[in-house]
Design goal:
about 400 residues, alpha/beta, five-stranded parallel sheet, binds zinc ion
């Protein structure tokens, strides 16, 4: 039955199952691939899920239901309304609460036998080795590159398997990075993408159901590693396309020159991952700061006084449909071809969702010879928060 060495040694008499647990896990116990010995391994196992968001939700729920004895959860975020579309471990009544709190309660409700260890903090280069060291399997449910490289490097240094998943719009991928037996994340992606090039789910969106598919694949791989059954995704990258409803697979090879798991590693301790990834937030702020700005209050006053100012919305039509402030829509992508529609002598205030795209539009107009162009600071989001709460925030 076993195809590989299980991560958790057979606990034999060291761990017993109560009658309640035997009844609870009966569908496992009747399968020879799990059976009593496997269920005890699951109970002895310690799994850390990094993040309790889209991927962390199904992961933690299924691992708890399946009887993983100790589940660690790392998160410092609070539940936001915009999380509920996909982060099914949190409910409507949890909005505003720390995510680790609602995740803790949900896990305990599904299976009170689980020991839940709460790490209400951001995973950093300072605390990662100490936190991860206690666990048998690390499951990466993060949504940003610095934490992804941090989790990878910490797992390589501690020699632990890193069950990876990532999602965007309608596509997801999963793999198991385990440097002892195969490639790591850096073997696949040696360098992070330039900041801003790969949009996050917050910028590009994600189908709410997608993390359910990828997170359950990660949970499946985690259980297989603990039990030592089946073929793990080590050395394979699974690609999932929800629109085409198809799976593809890519073979991954260990890179002998990998800076952390290669033959002559140059990374021998955790580094500054914000710096390594180019600190996207700081760059975005810089981009916005470089252009003349107008606040939403100033804009409102000008509009109320009937001053001569053209307000342009450079978002996409489908965003305009969700929320708008009744001004002219001219999507950023069409701006270069439609400059002739605008008068260079007039005043312009340009807004988008939060201010980054409109900053690019301001620069574009400046380059085209417009002199009186201002970026609306904070975009329609600031307008909704500070001027008119009836404009929905999305
Ligand atoms: Zn590597």
């Amino acid at each position: 039955m076993q195809t590989r060495q299980p991560l958790v040694a057979s606990p034999n008499g060291a761990i017993e199952l109560s009658n309640e647990e035997i009844a609870r896990y009966s569908r496992h116990l009747i399968m020879p691939e799990v059976a009593l010995d496997g269920q005890k391994k699951l109970k002895a196992a310690k799994v850390l899920t990094v993040g309790t968001g889209g991927l962390g939700s199904p992961l933690a729920l299924y691992l708890a239901a399946a009887g993983v004895g100790t589940i660690g959860i790392v998160d410092f975020d609070v539940v936001d309304e915009s999380n509920l579309q996909r982060q099914i471990i949190h409910g409507t009544s949890d909005v505003g609460r720390p995510k680790v709190e609602s995740a803790y309660e949900k896990i305990k409700d599904i299976n009170p036998n689980v020991e839940v260890r709460v790490h209400e903090e951001a995973l950093t280069s300072e605390n990662a080795l100490e936190i991860l060291d206690d666990y048998d399997v690390i499951v990466d449910g993060t949504d940003n590159f610095p934490t992804r490289y941090l989790v990878n490097d910490a797992c390589v240094l501690l020699n632990k398997p890193n069950v990876y998943g990532s999602i965007f719009r309608f596509e997801g991928q999963a793999s198991v990075f385990y440097a002892e037996e195969g490639p790591c994340y850096r073997c696949l992606y040696p360098e992070p993408p330039p900041p801003g090039l790969v949009p996050s789910c917050a910028e590009g969106g994600v189908l709410g159901i997608l993390p359910g598919a990828i997170g359950t694949i990660q949970a499946t791989e985690t259980a297989k590693l603990i039990l030592g059954i089946g073929e793990p995704l080590i050395g394979r990258l699974l690609l999932y396309d929800a629109l085409g409803m198809s799976f593809r697979e890519m073979k991954l090879r260990k890179d002998p020159n990998c800076p952390i798991c290669g033959e002559n590693p140059t990374v021998t301790e955790l580094i500054d991952y914000q710096e390594f990834c180019g600190i996207p937030q700081a760059n975005a702020a810089e981009e916005e700061n470089g252009v003349p700005e107008i606040t939403v209050e100033e804009l409102k006053q000008k509009m109320d006084r009937g001053e001569d100012i053209n307000v342009l919305d450079v978002r996409e039509p489908h965003e305009y449909e969700v929320a708008n402030i009744g001004v002219r829509l001219l999507p950023l992508g069409e701006l270069p071809q439609r400059l002739a529609e605008l008068d260079r002598d007039e005043n312009f205030a340009i807004h988008c969702k939060t201010g980054a795209r409109s900053a690019r539009a301001v620069r574009l107009l400046q380059d085209a010879g417009f002199e009186k162009v201002y970026n609306v600071k904070g975009g329609i989001t600031a307008w909704s928060e500070e001027i008119d709460p009836s404009v929905p925030k999305y």
